[in-house]
Specification:
This protein has 363 residues and is an alpha/beta fold. It is built from eleven helices and 14 strands. It has helices at residues 19-24, 74-94, 134-143, 152-158, 208-216, 235-239, 255-261, 281-289, 315-327, 334-343, 346-359; strands spanning 2-7, 30-36, 51-54, 57-61, 101-104, 120-125, 146-149, 165-167, 194-198, 221-225, 244-248, 264-267, 293-296, 310-312.
Length: 363
């Protein structure tokens, strides 16, 4: 049975498992120690014993590293990472781990490599880490036996550092979107066509298409479902419009009910992540419903799913394509959208990981 030390960038969650958790928990015949970062400099969770979150997975919280801390303060920097390394090594010894495979997800994990014994190294890159030293990620990619990249641009970015890069897009928890499951109506009495968004409404989320369309078409409704960061500059104007609905965050199990209630779904951009070509799990969830999807794109961006998604490059085109989405013939490409989502199911993604790592002799 293969032993894996997994260094994640997010805590283990039973409510909303992320990419790393979805992938590594599906690897067969493995024993896994899952390490996630402390949530604050005062987080004492690392003092607790590891939680047995699955029969083959134990989850730990790492000791906090004081931030900001940089390599300029070399002694403090080394002391902090030495402490983390000792914590991991102690946990591995207690669990009788020997020469495990390392699964890394963040450039800072490069500072652990010389503190641990391991038989192989994987780096899973699902975003651009442009606020960190590029040397960290470059060194990690060079050291890795296999690099997984969540998008073509990420793969291109890492290609000078590794010849063993595999494209591994995000995925979807497909059973939640069973088309035959009973659904409740979360918006009873609303008869307007509804365009829906699901996800955190962050400060950098560009809501200008929603504002523009909601003002141009007061006969349409716009649902913005998710946690709201009130610093978003468009919220004050959107709050004044009677055809914009902000129900706040909903339980994961309710999200499909809200999405199925919509007539079409919209995908927006973040101004703090320009030209990001990583396909979010949100888009796969949209496709799983079979509903029409209208996505905003950057000026030179190409829609990754042009056969099943309407791609708009400006505000007027966004409104036009929303109208086209409402006029789409029933079931025109619904099955094709659902097929695209099925291909992205997390078990399929994990099977691809297993195949690649087995071929590379790492599993």
């Amino acid at each position: 049975m293969k032993q894996i030390l997994c260094f994640s960038s997010e805590p283990w969650s039973t409510r909303l498992p992320g990419r790393t958790q979805q992938l590594i928990s599906r690897l067969r015949d493995t024993q896994i120690l899952y390490f996630s970062p402390a949530q604050s400099p005062r987080d004492k969770s690392y003092l607790k014993k590891g939680r047995q979150v699955r029969p083959n997975v134990a989850a730990y919280t790492l000791p906090p590293i004081p931030f900001p801390i940089s390599e300029r303060y070399r002694l403090l920097f080394q002391m902090a990472w030495n402490k983390v390394g000792r914590f991991i090594q102690d946990a591995a010894v207690r669990r009788h781990f020997s020469e495990p495979l390392l699964w890394t997800t963040h450039p800072r994990h490069i500072h652990l490599l010389d503190k641990l014994s391991y038989s192989g190294l994987v780096y899973d890159c699902d975003r651009v880490w442009d606020t960190l030293s590029p040397d960290w990620e470059g060194s990690l990619a060079r050291a890795a036996d296999v690099v997984f990249a969540a998008s073509p641009l990420l793969a291109d970015r890492l290609s000078p550092c590794s010849a063993n890069i595999a494209l591994l897009p995000n995925g979807i928890n497909l059973p939640l979107f069973d088309p035959n499951a009973p659904r409740f109506d979360p918006m009873p009495g609303v008869i307007a066509p509804i365009f829906g968004w699901a996800g955190t409404i962050r400060e950098g989320l560009d809501l200008s298409p929603v504002l523009y369309a909601a003002q141009a078409r007061p006969d349409w409704g716009f649902l913005l479902m998710g946690k709201v960061e009130r610093a978003n500059p468009f919220l004050r104007q959107l709050d004044k419009l009677s055809n914009v609905f902000l129900p706040g965050p909903r339980p994961v199990t309710e999200v499909p009910d809200w999405l199925y209630r919509c007539h079409a779904l919209i995908d927006l951009q973040r101004t703090d992540q320009p030209f990001d070509d990583v396909v979010s799990p949100r888009l796969y969830e949209y496709l799983a419903t079979g509903k029409p999807v209208v996505s905003m794109l950057w000026p030179d961006q190409i829609e990754p799913f042009p056969d099943v998604v309407y791609g708009a490059h400006d505000l007027d085109e966004f409104v036009t394509l929303c109208a086209h989405a409402l006029e789409e013939a029933p079931h025109f490409v619904s099955q094709r959208r659902m097929d695209r989502a099925a291909e992205a199911a997390w078990p399929c993604r994990a099977s691809e990981v297993e195949r690649i790592l087995t071929t590379a002799g790492l599993l």
